[in-house]
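Entry: Regulatory protein, Fis family
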Amino acid sequence: MAKLPARLRLPTLKLKELEAMAIRLALERNFWSLAEAAEELGISRWALMRRMRSLGLRSPRAVRRPSMKTDGTEGSEP
């Protein structure tokens, strides 16, 4: 098989990279709603969560922020 010129070659992606891209795009299109993204992808919500965990994808909402004290300062020290 003849090699294509460099300008016509597409980047090679692994299956896990393609799966992660598809999941991330579906989540972003659905504002990170797991139920809606799973429906779009044709899988259950639980399957989507398992795949996200195995691919290391986390919702931006899942990022923990430092707790605020009642006086407006950060942290948990007294």
